[in-house]
């Protein structure tokens, strides 16, 4: 075909329009039309050359083969831009659904405008070309990506937004992530209206709810703290939310607390007090930090008295020393800052004196009143700070007791804190004996009752000391020895008060056996399960103290009665046997003492009976010598028969000595 056939508008390779119209792209971006308008149309560069005739003939026969157009374009790589654009336009006209041709065409034109100013007409022309391509390529994500990147370069907010919306509406949801990456990258740039970006992000979160943290970071960077707090509260309350950054619910909660406490003026949609108190109940390992955050919230809002109430409530509820130290340090820092601010304000108010004497005299009364009021306020704040520092040991003691209210040692330390204040000490003792459960006590619970009674005794109130002991002996102690100790301390109190008869009466009352129900004797397990008050009559400690009292204050008969009762209860020790026998010997009851020895050696076996046998044989030989030699021999025979081989040597030597001497 000749070139003039093209000009005339004859059919050639799918090119049916007049050449002047065909080489004017629909996007208005080519310069040929401008040249034609100027009256100097030069078609020589656009006309097919001799080497193009082979491709043109093939395209004339089969214009709808993509390969032919691609081979034609590859062969004309060195052609001018206008010539290649013309071939591309013919190709996409013949094959409007060819992704390969459209994408190659768009990429080539995109590369051509790179480096030009965005106001250049070539940008508008390429935009139109993209729009023509998307008529058939609206399902191709690569075309949309190329178009969106191109629009982002132009910084056209509305164009980008509308194009992104169209792409999301055109593409299947499985490919939306590719569009959202471009969309979010664009709205996060500087200069984009924040409201527009927020609306776009909210739409994205409906598509990807798990990316809420990215939105929170975006809002944080833009200073929208109210919405930051709302989103954090939403994801904290959402049990199905999984942090992509690997943050736990605990970390997200702490972030929420930081936001709502540091920006109280901006956060208005949430109940900050309820949120932080809920966190205090839920996250017990961060109680101190949350209490200080709540107080800091009220401080930033200027509610200083409310902040003090929060600090006091925190100090009264925490149970760990770490949390207490955190709150107390923050509290003291707050009071110090308030005091410093007041001192600075007072220094500023105390300006240079006026040079005018009349004016100074006129305002003298008012100024004195103001300075006096400021001074009183300053003294009040200083006294408040000193009072807080002085309360620290007491507050710390309260924390330790909240950790374990049954710690006897901590109660004793608390009593010592109020040294010099009897009223507080009595109240502390009273609270201690009411609180400590003997079954859960850490330490010796009976020592609280004893110390309480001694406190009254030291202050000269023996009657109240007896009342304390009376209540102390009714406490269900877990150990029998604790109850016996209380009775013994009560008896020593009576001795110090010179009430000897009362002490003996007290011991008789303590050692009296309670009435027992008819039936079999209790087993060992049942005996241990009985209350200690029912088992007290078998307390050796109590009986030993009773014996000492009877020997010192009572008669011989009463002392013998006590010792015999011990032997009947079968709670005696070898030392009790020896003491009883010695008491009888001192009072010339030798035969009775020998009977006590007999009961002792029958009650105990070796090695516990060794001392009893030694004392028995020595006393018997010293008393009778050769007068009752046969009886002495019988005693030695019984002893060496009962003694093990290792223990028998000493007794054989004594036996031989008896025979040698007598």
Automatic annotation (TrEMBL):
Residues 51-209 form the Pre-mRNA-splicing factor Syf1-like N-terminal HAT-repeats domain. Keywords: mRNA processing, mRNA splicing, Nucleus, Repeat, Spliceosome. InterPro entries: HAT (IPR003107), HAT_Syf1-like_N (IPR055433), HAT_Syf1_central (IPR056350), HAT_Syf1_CNRKL1_C (IPR055430), Syf1-like (IPR045075), TPR-like_helical_dom_sf (IPR011990). GO terms for cellular component: post-mRNA release spliceosomal complex; Prp19 complex; U2-type catalytic step 2 spliceosome. Residues 342-366 are annotated as: Disordered. Belongs to the crooked-neck family. This is Suppressor of forked domain-containing protein. It comes from Mantoniella antarctica. The lineage of its organism: Eukaryota, Viridiplantae, Chlorophyta, Mamiellophyceae, Mamiellales.
């Amino acid at each position: 075909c000749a070139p003039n056939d093209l000009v005339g508008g004859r059919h050639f390779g799918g090119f049916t329009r007049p050449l002047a119209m065909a080489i004017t792209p629909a996007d208005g971006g080519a310069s040929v039309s401008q040249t034609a308008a100027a009256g100097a149309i030069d078609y020589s560069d656009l006309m097919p050359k001799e080497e193009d005739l082979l491709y043109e003939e093939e395209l004339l026969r089969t214009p709808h083969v993509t390969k032919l157009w691609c081979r034609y374009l590859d062969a004309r790589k060195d052609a001018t831009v206008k010539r290649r654009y013309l071939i591309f336009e013919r190709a996409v006209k013949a094959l409007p659904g060819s992704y390969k041709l459209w994408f190659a065409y768009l990429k080539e034109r995109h590369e051509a405008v790179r480096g030009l100013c965005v106001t250049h007409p070539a940008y508008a022309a390429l935009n139109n070309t993209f729009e023509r391509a998307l008529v058939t390529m609206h399902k191709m994500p690569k075309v949309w990506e190329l178009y969106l990147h191109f629009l982002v370069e132009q910084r056209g907010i509305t164009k980008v937004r509308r194009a992104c919306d169209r792409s999301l509406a055109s593409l299947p949801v499985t490919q939306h992530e590719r569009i959202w990456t471009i969309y979010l990258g664009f709205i996060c740039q500087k200069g984009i209206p924040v409201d527009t970006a927020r609306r776009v992000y909210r739409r994205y979160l409906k598509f990807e709810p798990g990316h809420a943290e990215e939105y929170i970071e975006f809002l944080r960077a833009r200073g929208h703290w109210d919405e930051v707090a709302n989103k954090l509260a939403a994801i904290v309350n959402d049990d199905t939310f999984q942090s992509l950054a690997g943050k736990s619910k605990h970390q997200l909660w702490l972030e929420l607390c930081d936001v709502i406490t540091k920006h109280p003026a901006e956060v208005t949609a949430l109940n900050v007090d309820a949120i932080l108190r809920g966190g205090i109940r839920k996250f017990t390992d961060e109680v101190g930090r949350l209490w200080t955050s709540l107080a800091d919230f009220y401080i930033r809002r200027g509610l200083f008295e409310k902040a003090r109430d929060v600090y006091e409530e925190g100090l009264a509820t925490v149970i760990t020393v770490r949390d207490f130290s955190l709150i107390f340090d923050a509290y003291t820092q707050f009071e110090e800052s308030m005091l410093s601010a007041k001192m600075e304000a007072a220094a500023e108010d105390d300006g240079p004196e006026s040079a005018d004497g009349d004016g100074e005299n006129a305002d003298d009364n008012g100024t004195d009143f103001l300075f006096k009021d400021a001074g009183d306020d300053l003294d009040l704040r200083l006294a408040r700070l000193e009072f807080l520092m002085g309360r620290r040991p007491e507050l710390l003691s309260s924390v330790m007791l909240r950790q374990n209210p049954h710690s006897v040692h901590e109660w004793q330390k608390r009593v010592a804190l109020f040294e010099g204040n009897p009223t507080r000490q009595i109240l502390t003792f009273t609270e201690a004996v009411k609180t400590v459960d003997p079954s859960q006590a850490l330490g010796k619970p009976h020592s609280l009752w004893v110390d309480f009674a001694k406190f009254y005794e030291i202050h000269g109130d023996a009657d109240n000391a007896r009342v304390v002991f009376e209540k102390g002996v009714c406490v269900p102690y877990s150990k029998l020895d604790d109850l016996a100790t209380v009775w013994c301390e009560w008896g020593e109190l009576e001795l110090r008060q010179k009430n000897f008869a009362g002490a003996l009466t007290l011991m008789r009352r303590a050692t009296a056996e309670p009435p027992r129900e008819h039936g079999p004797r209790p087993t060992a397990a049942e005996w241990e399960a009985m209350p200690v008050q029912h088992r007290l009559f078998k307390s050796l400690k109590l009986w030993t103290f009773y014996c000492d009292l009877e020997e010192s204050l009572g008669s011989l008969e009463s002392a013998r009665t006590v010792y015999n009762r011990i032997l009947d209860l079968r709670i005696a020790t070898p030392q009790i046997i020896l003491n009883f026998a010695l008491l009888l010997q001192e009072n010339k009851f030798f035969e009775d003492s020998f009977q006590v020895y007999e009961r002792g050696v029958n009650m105990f076996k070796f090695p516990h009976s060794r001392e009893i046998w030694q004392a028995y044989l020595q006393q018997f030989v010293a008393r009778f010598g050769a007068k009752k030699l046969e009886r002495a021999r019988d005693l030695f025979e019984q002893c060496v028969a009962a003694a093990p081989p290792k223990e028998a040597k000493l007794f054989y030597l004594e036996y031989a000595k008896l025979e040698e001497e007598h």
